[in-house]
Design brief:
Length: 427
């Protein structure tokens, strides 16, 4: 597919997103794109990353001349060196996200075998020895690491560099790498971390979605409203870091037989109402690919008539519990228990091999569940209800992890739980 977005706009929009996600600082980080003519478009030196405009982007032409009102980033030498070493790379993201910086100063590389998607998206990992920022020596160090086939590289005592065949692909790789790093930091505060073996990764890769294509009728006002709600909350979820661009699925029931769901292989934050896929029985809306979790969503709707929305998500703190055997106890504050009740744990692989069994792990009395090494499932009576529960789940997980750094966690006694059940009519 031809990319019709100008490199200036791609860099500006992507940098805005990275800065808004707090994955870089005002002065840190740089992005570049190599175009088909061999020119390199790159973010400028010494310009506020939180207020970048398209006119700030610099073009370093193939002949070495510079076009722009600012000098190119001081890190341009390593961008140039990576492009020379890897003809397949057309875009580069360099930044200093907190979790990956933590790994860089411990001289470690995060293990992405926490999740099948992160492992797949991040590609081969590497570690580049330290050299002075902006120096030719740093360019040589990083380029040698990329030349060995690496796609995501930790820079010793510096940050991270990732490459991709396009800037959206490089951003997804960068985001997934930081997500894995943040999850590991949190999980290590809980206990021993569980990593996936080759057979587990293959199990996820082999999952297939077998829907036939159909042309749906004209949408009802209810369907149109649900499409808008899903897009609005998907965007909010990404911006609040409850979802990331390559992970998770969100759906809403349209009627007894059909539901809307996020598509496969599309950036979650940028989805429009037209991108969402209508699924009905064994059919899916023609011209679109439904999420590979669509059959799991369908099984939950079939088993639970009161459920009208479902999200599979990967918020960092809750996901940290999913990659350890640490118990996630919601009996911490009344809101947590009232909204979530007892959160069950789903053994790894159930969501790929037995959708009927998966549906037994959630219910009105237990609306959320942990998926081992795959985030969480949250259900609700509406899109808003489901999103609200997802927020409460992640806030509770973060509070519990923070509490472990302070002292011994004191959960609410059974008498308080009984009172909450009575007062809120909880089954």
């Amino acid at each position: 597919m031809r990319n019709l977005v100008h490199p200036r706009d791609e860099i500006m929009q992507t940098m805005d997103r990275i800065y808004r996600y707090r994955m870089t600082t005002t002065s840190g980080g740089n992005l570049s794109i190599r175009d088909n003519e061999g020119n390199v478009w790159i973010s400028p030196a010494r310009v506020d990353k939180g207020n970048l405009t398209r006119d700030d982007i610099v073009c370093v032409r193939a002949d070495g001349t510079v076009d722009g009102k600012h000098p190119p980033s001081s890190e341009f030498p390593f961008h140039r060196a990576i492009y020379a070493a890897r003809p397949d790379i057309q875009s580069i993201v360099h930044a200093h996200p907190v979790a990956l910086v933590a790994f860089s100063i411990c001289r470690q590389t995060p293990n992405t075998r926490l999740f099948h998607q992160a492992h797949n998206v991040c590609g081969k990992l590497g570690f580049a020895p330290y050299a002075c920022p902006g120096s030719e020596a740093l360019g040589e160090s990083i380029a040698q690491t990329f030349a060995s086939g690496c796609d995501s590289v930790i820079l010793e005592n510096h940050g991270v560099v990732v490459g991709g065949e396009s800037l959206p692909r490089a951003f997804e790789r960068f985001e997934a790498f930081e997500f894995a790093g943040k999850t590991l930091v949190k999980a290590n505060q809980l206990g021993s971390v569980r990593f996936l073996q080759d057979k587990h990764l293959q199990q996820a890769a082999d999952r297939a979605v077998d829907f036939e294509s159909f042309d749906p009728p004209a949408p009802t006002p209810n369907e149109q409203e649900l499409r808008k709600q899903l897009c609005d909350f998907l965007r909010r979820g990404c911006r609040q870091r409850l979802l990331i661009s390559t992970e998770g699925s969100f759906s809403a029931r349209v009627d007894k037989k059909s539901f809307l769901i996020t598509p496969s292989q599309k950036d979650r934050e940028l989805l429009t109402v037209e991108d969402l896929v209508l699924v009905s029985g064994d059919g899916r809306e023609s011209g679109k690919l439904a999420s590979r979790a669509a059959r799991a969503h369908q099984a939950i709707y079939a088993a639970h008539p009161a459920v009208n929305a479902i999200v599979f998500a990967h918020p960092v703190n809750a996901t940290a519990f999913s990659v350890t055997d640490s118990t996630f106890d919601v009996r911490t504050i009344p809101e947590s228990y009232v909204f979530l009740r007892d959160v069950k744990r789903v053994p790894y692989g159930v969501q790929y091999r037995d959708y009927t069994e998966l549906a037994t792990y959630v219910s009105e009395a237990s609306p959320a569940a942990m998926l081992e090494n795959d985030g969480v499932i949250v259900t609700g009576r509406s899109v808003l209800d489901t999103f609200d529960r997802l927020e409460v789940l992640e806030s509770t997980a973060e509070a519990v992890i923070n509490a472990k750094a302070i002292g011994e966690i004191q959960t609410m006694p059974e008498a308080v739980i009984d009172e909450l059940r009575r007062e809120f009519n909880l089954s």
